[in-house]
Amino acid sequence: MRSRKTTRRAATSIAVGVLMVGVVTACSSSSKDARNGADSPAISGSGGSSSSAVADAQRIVDAAGKALVYAPVDTGSTASQIVPQTTWQGPKTGPKPLPKQKVEVVFCAAGTACETVAKGAQAAGQLLGWNVELIPGSGTAQSYATAMDTALSRKPDAIIGVAIPGASVADRLATAKQRGIVTVSAPDSPTDGTNPWQAYVSIRQPLTYQIMAYQVIADSNGAGDAIVVRQADQPDLIKGVTEYQRVMQSCPKCRTKVVDLTIPDQTNPAVAGQKLAAAISSEPGVQYLVLPDDNGFGNMIAAVQSSGKKIKIIAKDATNLELQAINKGDIYAAPGASLDWMGYAAINQVNLGLNKQPYLNAYDQGLGIHIYTKADAPADGTADFTKFVDWVSGYKTLWGVQ
């Protein structure tokens, strides 16, 4: 599996310390909080039995630590719907890929998990004999618009956006549609009735947040006090935090505080440090920090180390940098779905669109979630999800390629 190699200076600043990775529970903040960039007050769980919540959480965490877990939908899953995944659950039939297609992949920023997804799409396209080009943004709405302009200028057959919110490029997507260009969004899913992208691929971010909530519950024996960082400019991550909060309602002794940061905030040492220091200071009993990804990773770890508290960190996505950080002792766990797999799934949606076939639902790609910890995080940071499910063969069979 293709891994992400990071070159960010922040990554090299990660120091081995007393930090351990754990899950931060999200508090019951509203979408209004996210839009306004307002941090939410810490809120405790409100119902259910602690023993029952812990038992459910431990079952799910054990299964996700051994292999993959899967649920049929991204949101609203009950604990009983999250089950072990051992076989290919992606598409089994589809149209023959068209020859010599040109695809532009616009992604959030270089050196991030977005780039790993983009490179996965590029590798999948190469299997089909397609020309797939990558265009990075820089984590801002303006950079996404500029990257989309570049993509449109190259007159592609399709455009894939990786963590590019539709609202920030809605006019460009309308232009693409007028020109007959297929557009696919990954790793997001539709968040409102506008659906500016033509198709979506979910990397199961809302479901991953549910898994992180269960990990906090299990690890704390039903008494976790957590801070959750929410990327307030990424709709699917806002939805994920909402799912986290929903799960934590079953844990009456758990507490959650949400802190809103954008990608530029995360990568700015002063902003990230100030916001996290304030959040940690406001929660004297905090035990966990839950991160949406590895953007500004060194800044996040430094802020926790500066607090002098033993706070466990769980970082979503299972990226190269996160897995290396587990082995260094900087974080405790990194749950996520395969980023490369998601790139293949995006190319499959493109193939359906080019053949004028119905698109799959965003979550019908078969992706399962694994929790990496010290027990199995590869030393070089290269995550290989094919050892759980041979998803590469699944797509090769689907497309009729070797």
Description:
Helices cover 39% and strands 15% of the residues. The chain has 14 helices and 14 strands. The chain has helices at residues 9-12, 31-36, 50-66, 113-127, 141-153, 170-178, 205-219, 235-248, 263-267, 269-282, 297-307, 320-328, 339-354, 391-399, and strands at residues 43-44, 68-70, 83-85, 102-107, 131-136, 158-162, 182-186, 199-200, 225-231, 255-261, 288-291, 312-315, 334-336, 370-372. A 5-stranded mixed β-sheet has the order 1-10-9-11-12, with helices on both faces. The protein has a 5-stranded parallel β-sheet with strand order 5-4-6-7-8, sandwiched between helices. The chain starts with 8 loop residues before the first helix and ends with a helix.
Structural class: alpha/beta
How far is the first residue's CA from the last residue's CA? 16 Å
Largest sheet: 5 strands, mixed
User: Could you give the order of the helices and strands?
Assistant: HHEHEEEHEHEHEEHEHEHHEHEHEHEH
The spatial strand order of the largest sheet comes to 1-10-9-11-12
Shape: globular
Q: Provide the helix percentage.
A: 25-40%
Kindly provide the radius of gyration, computed on alpha-carbon positions and rounded to a whole number of angstroms: 20 Å
**Unreliable stretches, pLDDT < 50, 5 or more residues?**
1-38
Instruction: Give me the count of strands.
Output: 14
Q: Give the overall pLDDT as a whole number.
A: 87
